[in-house]
Structures are given as structure tokens and as C-alpha cells.
Amino acid sequence: AQTPVKVTVTGAAGQIGYALLFRIASGQLLGADVPVTLSLLEIPQAVKAAEGTAMELDDCAFPLLRGIEITDDPNVAFDGANVALLVGAMPRKAGMERGDLLEANGGIFGPQGKAINDHAADDIRVLVVGNPANTNALIAQQHAPDVPAERFTAMTRLDHNRALSQLAAKLQVPVTEIKKMTIWGNHSATQYPDLFHTEVGGKIAAELVDEAWLRDTFIPTVAKRGAAIIEARGASSAASAANAAIDHVYDWVNGTEWTSAAIPSDGSYGVPEGLISSFPVVSRNGKWEIVQGLEIDAFSRERIDASVRELEEERDAVRQLGLI
Ligand code: NAI
């Protein structure tokens, strides 16, 4: 029998966790023929709630689910882990300065990175969902010097999927007609959804829409969709975030044509090496590769640079705080 893949989920008792765990256990994360064990990491106060979710997972009798472990100790949670979904994070509270937010998250992602370094399986792949996702991923990576740097990624797939759906609605086409969508930069309001390489029925998307819509409606709608969901739902996006995490890991492991992911920069497109920034990517042989050779016009350049500058500022702030 095939050895189960160990998938560790942090923040397992949270709302994304609740939307995510059942899909992992049903085979959607890795494939319908891959058995999994789940390791749920929570803070002590939320372990009981995670146990409740585990009871429900039991009650689904998922054929692929070979075990569930629940712990508040990262060293246990990441022991032998093949996939780590870092969802639990410290949310920004009213009046919180960026430095406070980064510091609180440094206290979470530093130790988790070290636990991954010391205990995870050799093929560990990490996706950071918890915000500020790109910089949290950088913090975890910097505490895991023995793990290849490219195994630390952050999620911009939800932004990518939002961009696909906004464009599909505008052009009245199914999302499957849209190829080569790209999100650049930070998973934040500065992100840049780029339609200048996106193809719809063989035509460039930016040429199918007017510039005012692209600039004043499309870009801000995608970038601020998270806030719009909170406004409408009274809670932040959870099922769609879980869905995007599933898409990211599935494609990373199984390969994909053009999508978006935040991965460590190799210096491509002027993004400083080492920053975990969103790029157009493909996945081949279990590795993300940045799509090369795209022409970037002045409109895109300005927006990519602004988002990358924000990532540099976050990196400099966590450096100054001694978090990396
Ligand atoms: P939530 O508040 O419902 O759940 C977070 C869970 O993390 C809680 O159960 C909490 O106890 C746990 N947690 C906190 N610190 C922890 C630690 N040190 N170790 C383990 N668990 C810990 O939040 P929700 O809605 O599930 O969102 C989680 C994160 O995902 C947030 O940071 C949110 O901003 C982010 N997010 C990211 C998106 C993206 O596109 N990258 C999209 C949507 C949300």
C-alpha cells in the first residue's frame, strides 16, 4: 500500500481550516488516489475546537484519510510533514501598527519555520496563507536554512481566481476561455493583476476591454475583493481561500500551465532576489518556474514596482525587528 502523505494544517480550527480539511481528506489536494494523514496545529485554547473538526472528519469515513493528529506543538505537527499549509496567523487588529503585526507574526512563523527545518520530510512543500502571507513565508523560510528556499511559497491564487472570474463576467465567457492570467507582487491591496499577457480566445485581454475599466474597475475590484467579502459576509473569505490553497498545492505537485504563485524571486523582472513575490508561473516536475521573456510596458512596470517596493519595506521591517 502507498505510504500516506502527511499534510500539516496550522490554524486548523479557524474558518479557512474548516473549509480546507474536508477537501484535503477527500483527495482534492493531491489527487484522488493519494492517501493522506492530517496533522492539525492549533494554539492551546483552540485544540478542543480542532478535536471537534477531527470528529467530523472521522464521520465522513473518507477512504483516503489514514489518520488525524492534533497538537499545539509545532515540533510534533511538522514531524515528517510532506505538505504544510500555514493558515493560522495573527490578524491585524484595529489600531495595530504594521511593526506590531509583523512582530506578532514573526513570533508564529519563525518557530514554525524552525520546526519545519528540524522535523519535516525532505520533500516538504510549504504554502503560507496567513497574512501578511508573503512576508510570513519569508520569515518561515529564513528559519529553515536546511530546506531548499523554493519550497516556501505564499498564496496569490485566490487573487488569480478572482481576476479570472471578474474578467470572465466582463467578457461574458467561461473562465476556461481565459489563459495566462497573472498576479504580480504582494498579496495585498498593491497587488497587480495583469491583463496584458492574458489571452481570451487567442486575443490579448487588455485589448478586449477599455483602459478605464481595466484601471479603475478591474484592478481595484480584484485587489479589494477581500474587503468586499468581509463587508458582505461579515467574515473574511474562507471557502474561496481554502479552494485557492487546494489549487496551489495540487498544481505544484501535479504540474500546471500558466498560473500565479508567490515564490522566491531569482531576480526575474527586476524583483530583488529572495523576495517572495507573485509571478506568472508554470509547474514542472514538482517545481514552480517563472514564465520568462514577457514584455512589461510602463503601465505594468509602475504597478509591479509599487507592489515589490511594499514587499521590500516589509522585508526591511522584519529585518530591523530581528525577525529574520
Ligand atoms: P480564523 O481566525 O478563523 O482562524 C485562524 C486560526 O489560526 C485560529 O483558529 C487560531 O487559533 C489559529 N492560530 C493562531 N495562531 C496560531 C499558531 N501560532 N499556531 C497555530 N494556529 C494558530 O482565520 P481564517 O479566516 O481561517 O484566516 C486565516 C488567515 O488566512 C488570516 O491571516 C487571513 O488573513 C488569511 N487569509 C489569506 C488569504 C490569502 O489569499 N492569502 C485569503 C483569506 C484569508
TrEMBL record:
<dbReference type="InterPro" id="IPR001236">
    <property type="entry name" value="Lactate/malate_DH_N"/>
</dbReference>
<feature type="binding site">
    <location>
        <position position="92"/>
    </location>
    <ligand>
        <name>substrate</name>
    </ligand>
</feature>
<feature type="binding site">
    <location>
        <begin position="11"/>
        <end position="17"/>
    </location>
    <ligand>
        <name>NAD(+)</name>
    </ligand>
</feature>
<comment type="similarity">
    <text>Belongs to the LDH/MDH superfamily. MDH type 2 family.</text>
</comment>
<feature type="binding site">
    <location>
        <position position="131"/>
    </location>
    <ligand>
        <name>substrate</name>
    </ligand>
</feature>
<keyword id="KW-0816">Tricarboxylic acid cycle</keyword>
<feature type="binding site">
    <location>
        <position position="112"/>
    </location>
    <ligand>
        <name>NAD(+)</name>
    </ligand>
</feature>
<dbReference type="GO" id="GO:0006108">
    <property type="term" value="P:malate metabolic process"/>
</dbReference>
<feature type="binding site">
    <location>
        <position position="98"/>
    </location>
    <ligand>
        <name>substrate</name>
    </ligand>
</feature>
<feature type="active site" description="Proton acceptor">
    <location>
        <position position="187"/>
    </location>
</feature>
<dbReference type="InterPro" id="IPR036291">
    <property type="entry name" value="NAD(P)-bd_dom_sf"/>
</dbReference>
<dbReference type="InterPro" id="IPR010945">
    <property type="entry name" value="Malate_DH_type2"/>
</dbReference>
<keyword id="KW-0560">Oxidoreductase</keyword>
<comment type="function">
    <text>Catalyzes the reversible oxidation of malate to oxaloacetate.</text>
</comment>
<dbReference type="Pfam" id="PF00056">
    <property type="entry name" value="Ldh_1_N"/>
</dbReference>
<dbReference type="GO" id="GO:0030060">
    <property type="term" value="F:L-malate dehydrogenase (NAD+) activity"/>
</dbReference>
<dbReference type="GO" id="GO:0006099">
    <property type="term" value="P:tricarboxylic acid cycle"/>
</dbReference>
<dbReference type="InterPro" id="IPR022383">
    <property type="entry name" value="Lactate/malate_DH_C"/>
</dbReference>
<dbReference type="Pfam" id="PF02866">
    <property type="entry name" value="Ldh_1_C"/>
</dbReference>
<protein>
    <recommendedName>
        <fullName>Malate dehydrogenase</fullName>
        <ecNumber>1.1.1.37</ecNumber>
    </recommendedName>
</protein>
<dbReference type="InterPro" id="IPR015955">
    <property type="entry name" value="Lactate_DH/Glyco_Ohase_4_C"/>
</dbReference>
<feature type="binding site">
    <location>
        <position position="162"/>
    </location>
    <ligand>
        <name>substrate</name>
    </ligand>
</feature>
<feature type="binding site">
    <location>
        <position position="105"/>
    </location>
    <ligand>
        <name>NAD(+)</name>
    </ligand>
</feature>
<keyword id="KW-0520">NAD</keyword>
<dbReference type="InterPro" id="IPR001557">
    <property type="entry name" value="L-lactate/malate_DH"/>
</dbReference>
<dbReference type="InterPro" id="IPR001252">
    <property type="entry name" value="Malate_DH_AS"/>
</dbReference>
<feature type="domain" description="Lactate/malate dehydrogenase C-terminal">
    <location>
        <begin position="156"/>
        <end position="317"/>
    </location>
</feature>
<feature type="binding site">
    <location>
        <begin position="129"/>
        <end position="131"/>
    </location>
    <ligand>
        <name>NAD(+)</name>
    </ligand>
</feature>
<feature type="domain" description="Lactate/malate dehydrogenase N-terminal">
    <location>
        <begin position="5"/>
        <end position="147"/>
    </location>
</feature>
